Amino acid sequence: MLKRWRGFTLVELLVAMVVFAILVALGFPAFSAWIHDEQIRSTAELLQNGLRLAQTDALDRSRIVVFSLSNATPALSATPAADGVNWYAQALPLYAGEASLTSYTNSAYLQGGALGGAGNGTTITGPASICFSSIGRLVATSQTVGGASYACSVPASGTLVSYDVANPQGDRPLRVTVSFGGQIRLCDPARTLSTSNPDGC
What we know:
It contains 2 helices and 10 strands; from the N terminus they run H-E-E-H-E-E-E-E-E-E-E-E. It is an alpha+beta fold. It has a single domain, classed as minor pseudopilin epsh domain (minor pseudopilin epsh fold). A hairpin with a 2-residue loop joins strand 6 (141-145) and strand 7. The longest helix is centred in the first third of the chain and has 52 residues, at 10-61.
């Protein structure tokens, strides 16, 4: 005797589709927040890596290197801008006339790039420029090179330079901090740094 195979009825298919649509609708807000949290993390990590590159170049070249945020395309003497969406690192002159030297102009721009999700809902709140000395510590200086002005200051004792990375549609803002001594950390501003919260700020 042959068995008869039956498929799904139209009612069963409609019920399955309604259940699936409800599950997707319930999961979408959490999925959307997760996507924005990943944008925050990738932007913060790019920022942290750029800061470390500037610090390493300052050590390698034995000179002051400025790390700048900018809304312009990263390039030699791009205009620094607080809360900018791009970053770049540039070596600063050792003395007043060096900026006009061809050898300096060709080697001053070190590296730069876009900060991932910045400008697409993810915001960065932080200073336009900070400067690393030849020993990798923060240093105060004020210079104008190629039409761009760099005004770097040193934080007060016990305080940090902070870059806050956030997205209103995400749940987990992050912060990148730089201490006077040059320690660069990525941390969670919603937590306080302690032995039980090593990722806290």
